[in-house]
Amino acid sequence: MEKVAIVTGSSSGIGYETSLSLAREGYFTYATMRDVEKADIIKKVAENESLPLKVIELDVDDEKSVEDAIRTIMEEKQRIDVLVNNAGWGIWGTAEDVSIEEFREQFETNFFSVVRMIQKIAPVMRKQGNGDIVNISSIAGRIGFPVSTAYISSKFAIEGLSESIRYELGPFGVNVIIIEPGVIKTNFFDSMKIAKKADENDTYKEITEKVISGVKMMAEMGTPPKEVADVIIKSLKEQQPLPRYIVGNDAAMFLEAKKMKTDIEFENYLKKELYGE
Ligand SMILES: NC(=O)c1ccc[n+]([C@@H]2O[C@H](COP(=O)([O-])OP(=O)(O)OC[C@H]3O[C@@H](n4cnc5c(N)ncnc54)[C@H](OP(=O)(O)O)[C@@H]3O)[C@@H](O)[C@H]2O)c1
């Protein structure tokens, strides 16, 4: 039976590579994006390689858009085997600089949209008696650091959500897999917003500048997004996928350090690594 996958945020980066990789593995893949005008390249690649891939519109923040996309898939294929919750973005700013509205916007896409997708697709998978939900978290879902506070909080929330629903959905044959990439070379950092107040407020100017330049330097040497797609494919091939998969040497290094050091030792280590303090 042809398996069906849906990926959110397929216009670029990890979502783009994951959609193509799933289609290359034989999944009929719905590569979804909020702006289908960005679909030219993925469509051309799929056409050249005769891949089973279709682009449909889906803005994860928009309830109706999500419902329309899922209705289309169910009408056309009557099943969903894999959901990759990938769409996301980030905002620079300290907890004081990011307004409540900006925190909400950040959580809307990075957290509530994931809940929305799961609430609509889990019943389909439960009925089938099988399915894989892949949530793209981050090393930032395991390790806090300054000036990306809203983003990090949203990824920590994804970790809590994913760990909890593993118990709820596991008995129905639905796997929940957390992917934790380190720094990946995509449009992500160029697309990052900056908190409105951070521009006017001098209090955190120095640490903000240090962290942004430190992270951007790491991004120059980031892991290619194809490696994230490869890990996702590998996880889906496991008889019993693990709860979480790390991607990138940087992520492995930070998590190993976190395991080996005390909390205070780790904070000092991270300050040095991130902004040389
Ligand atoms: N890059 C990294 O270092 C890194 C590390 C760990 C985790 N991640 C996570 O990986 C995921 C993908 O990021 P990326 O690195 O591939 O960055 P990216 O190239 O900027 O891709 C982000 C994707 O999310 C989409 N998106 C944003 N808001 C959306 C919405 N409301 N509805 C639908 N799509 C939306 C973007 O669409 P548009 O083109 O329309 O903006 C784009 O397709 C994110 O969840 C991110 O947090 C990234």
Question: What does this entry look like structurally?
Answer:
This protein has 277 residues and is of the alpha/beta class. Helix content is 54%, strand content 15%. The chain contains 11 helices and 9 strands. It has a 7-stranded parallel beta sheet, with helices on both faces. The protein has a two-stranded parallel ribbon with strand order 5-8. Helix 1 packs across helix 9 (225-237) and helix 4 runs parallel beside helix 5 (149-169). It is globular, with a radius of gyration of 19 Å. The chain binds NADP nicotinamide-adenine-dinucleotide phosphate. NADP nicotinamide-adenine-dinucleotide phosphate (NAP) is lined by residues 8-9, 11-15, 33-35, 38, 59-61, 86-89, 109, 136, 138, 181, 183-184, 186-188, 191, 222, 225. Residues 8-9, 11-15, 33-35, 38, 59-61, 86-89, 109, 136, 138, 181, 183-184, 186-188, 191, 222, 225 line the site of NADP nicotinamide-adenine-dinucleotide phosphate (NAP).
Write the topology of this structure.
Layout: E1 4-7, H1 13-24, E2 28-33, H2 40-48, E3 53-57, H3 63-77, E4 82-85, E5 91-92, H4 100-128, E6 131-136, H5 149-169, E7 174-181, H6 188-191, E8 193-194, H7 196-200, H8 205-220, H9 225-237, E9 244-247, H10 249-260, H11 263-275
Parallel strand pairs: 1-2, 1-4, 2-3, 4-6, 5-8, 6-7, 7-9
NADP nicotinamide-adenine-dinucleotide phosphate (NAP) binds at residues 8-9, 11-15, 33-35, 38, 59-61, 86-89, 109, 136, 138, 181, 183-184, 186-188, 191, 222, 225.
